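Meet my pick.
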Amino acid sequence: MEGPIFMEYSPLTIEEKWLQKWEESKLYQVNKDNISNPYYVLEMFPYPSGNLHMGHVRNYTIGDTLARFKRMNGFEVLYPMGYDSFGLPAENAAIQNNVDPNQWTLANIDTMIKQQQRLGLSYDWSCKLATCQPDYYHWNQWIFIQMYNKGLIYRKKGWVNWDPVDLTVLANEQVIDGKGWRSGADVEKKEIEQWYIKITDYAEELLSDLDSLDEWPERVKIMQRNWIGKNTGTEAIFQIEDENGNNKGSIPVFTTRPDTLCGVTYLVLAVEHPLTSNLTSGTKYQDDVQKFVQDTLKSSNQERTDMNKPKKGLFLGHYVINPITGEKAPLYTGNYVLMEYGTGAVMAVPAHDQRDFEFAKEHNLPIKVVIQDSTSSLDSESMTQAFTEPGLLVNSSQFNELSSNQAKQDITHWLINNKKGSEKTTYRLRDWLISRQRFWGTPIPIIYDEDNNPHPVSEEELPVKLPENVNFSGQGNPLANTASFAKTSKHNKLFTRETDTMDTFFDSSWYFFRYTDSQNKKLPFESKNANQWLPVDQYIGGIEHAVLHLLYARFFTKVLRDLGLSDVNEPFKRLLCQGMVLKDGAKMSKSLGNTVDPASIISKYGADTARLFILFGAPVDRDLDWSDDGVEGSFRFLKRFFIICSQWEKHPLKGDQNNLNKKLHKTIQSVTNDIQRFSFNTAISRLMELMNFYYSNGISKEAAIITTQLIAPFAPFLAEELWSILEQSNSVHKSKWPSYDQQLIIEETSTIVIQVNGKVRDKFQIERNTDQETIKSLALKSEKIQKYTNTAEIIKIIHVPNKLLNIVVKP
């Protein structure tokens, strides 16, 4: 009879073999019927740039490890993949390389799929989607129409970057040092009609429901709270007059300091405020104001609100009337006021706000003290900075001598009673601008009649498809320049199509619903499927998506619920934000020339090595420093693992079987617990310790089988090969996760710490559950303890079983 055949570890051969077998057997395709134990694992889907980078590898390997673990624990796991495939890069590639963006994108998707499959990622490819395909963006358009009919979508003017040479709107990333990326022309700001979604209607729910997300990182919830930016205060109404005293309407102004209202000496509008241009249109101020608006909008919001930057502004030729005092104050526009705060108008109280103080000094505007410091008397003439603390009111009519806190209440009530204001809650969150003046996106399903009135496209006409054979000259909007698309007729009437496309965040705000029913041709998804799988049990992605994507996804989930499409309130139950992959301490970047191609690692060491290193190198939520030595070390470990488990007969037990059982079952417990808490690096470390034990003490076939199961989520190819070598049926990835024997993980001894007056003086190993008197007797025989107790009186003994004994002596 022939002896066993001993094999070497050949990862490339092994991996290619099992890739083919898994694909043929559809091993990872989930049965969506009669699900009793569903679990939904999802990574944020990628933009198909064409090649995976190490950040991708880390993200996907984390998700795949969890998905495999959950399957082995009896869950029906939905683990899909798709591609966020609309966006600017494809359109830029079309312009630069004269290629079709659809073909360019689909070729990139094919490349990424091959790379993801080569990594051994256990996706259910039957759920695959790409947002650039009509069978997906059809439902973008359908959802848009439902939201439009519900009053959640509207059209208004908004500011864009305008290239005057290419005659096109530019995304922020296409503006380089103030110039168009292609033409090199100075970029202007232009107001055009655009489409918005009323996310502000859900501001309070989005804020309050953060408290229910107890499995989200706190830093992400803080970022969303700050982005939503709830503020409670007072809204005061200022009447407007022109220079001839004619009334020109009113301006509502939000403030959290109504106690300073009587100290307003001017009022400032954001340059984006409609009144900035409306009040000066056709006046002698118009040209200067328009130039100031353009200059200001070239700066970012961060630059405009920088306390160290100069506070600039222009008088608008109008005045406002203080609602309490009736005093007239000049109306300005200023670079330091943002439309995102309150109403986009700020009542300026230079005596009590530092930015207002600096602006007033710069523009020689009056400063009026209305809050006095209780310890000294403030004088506007001698002030060198604003007094921003609470105090007692002065120069405030009937509110004099009130404390700031009391005055806030009394002044607000006065405004309400006199119909000049109200209590107000505002949010920093603004409605979501979704219009994009470019080709490669979902066409907005709106047509305009001859009077320019908008009408939604009928659902029967969906999808409104992007045209083919479009001319990408780089000038103008390709959709607007394609007559076959831009013009249409209905009921013998001529209509013009909307030629803006949707923000790609629209696509990514609901894709996790579509995965649950990706082949549905009648609806975006059936409610029963969404309710069965959602919320996603585990969502994985970068911290850079903490606000926009994650907030929009939460918003869409609530809208889809209110449209009657699901019962789901929140999209993601548990969120993990993985760390970055670094090289020499810096983020991997093509511009820095420090990237590592995953394909080069796989072709040399195999996918299992790449996976193992990326999981072992650091905790999943921390940054990972790339290390060639670490990759080599991971390969050596897998090689050793393979040899010991496949050649278990060459490593017979050298001692007691019970010792092996104890070590194995403690490892099962540790690896199980570590995976459940995403401590993958320590789980792998436990397996390394187990290999060392086997090498020194030997291994049995049963132990080799169980150990193969333990490594399966991390190194799926190696595990599958070993499972076959060890003559086990079916796939290791369909096997039941090993359980541990509670009796075998109990330690027979424990380390007892001996303290004297609370300070550690000795420690020793002793049989578990040894009684206090025995431990005390042993402790008092210790020389380390005797020098503290021989001449001292013992007052009492404190005993914590199996942990410590504290001897308290009289000082």
Summary: The two ends are 79 Å apart (CA to CA). Residues 1-5 have pLDDT under 50 and may be disordered. The chain is about 35% helix and 20% strand. Residues 657-676 form the longest helix (20 residues).
